[in-house]
Amino acid sequence: MAAPRPRAPRTRSRRTGPRRAVAGLGALALAVVLAACAGGDPASSAGEAAQRSAAGASVTSGADCLAPQVLAALGFAGASSTAHPDVPEAGPVPGEFTAVSAVLCTTGETLTDAAGRWAAVTATRLEGDVRPLVTALTASATVPAAGSTPAACAADAPRADLWLVDALGAAVRVTLPAGGCGTLPVALSEGLDALDAVDVEHYPVELVGPRATASPTGG
Prior knowledge:
Layout (H helix, E strand, L loop, with lengths): L20 H17 L4 H14 L3 E2 L7 H6 L27 E13 L2 E12 L3 H8 L21 E6 L5 E4 L11 H8 L2 E15 L9
Antiparallel strand pairs: 1-5, 2-3, 2-4, 3-6, 4-5
Helix pairs in contact: 4-5
C-alpha cells in the first residue's frame, strides 16, 4: 500500500500591529478584490479547508487493537472489553497528520489455554517508510465513497483495522476498503509489506472451542 507524502504544516499568518492598521485595511481590500477577480472567495476557501479537516479521522492518544470499536470492526462485537476506552470511528487520513509508523490489527490467529481455544486479535507495530502506505490510503481507488456502507463480511473472511501513528504516539484510525474485510488492495498490501514488523502481540478475545471437562464417574 502506498502512502502520500504528509503535507507540510500550515504556516500561521502574521497579525498586523496597531500602527499598521490603516495600511493593513487598504492591503486587505486590494487582496479581496484580487481574489474575487481570480474567482476565489476567502470565506469560501476557509470553509472548504475546515470541511476537509473535519472529514479526516479524529486523532486520539494512541493506537489500541482491543478498543470496543476495533473489536466490533474485526467481528468481535460481543467481546468488547470495558477495560479499554472507546476510540473514534475510522475515517480518511487527516491532511495535517504526519505518520511515522502504523499499527495493524488483524484476525485469523488462535490461542489455546486451560479454558480451550480462543480466537485472537493480532496487533502488529510497523515501522519504516510509511509514505507509500499513506499514498495508497488517500488514493481515490482505495478511499470508500462518502456515505457508502461496506457489504456484510463473510464469517470466515480475514479482517483488518489500521492505525497511523505520529512521532509523539498520537494515532488516527483510518478507513480501509470494504471495511477491512477480505484481501486488501495491492497498493495497500505493498505499502504494509514494505514496513518492518517491530512488535507482534496476540490477544485472546473470544472462546471458540471450550476445553471439554471430564465427566465425573459414579462410585
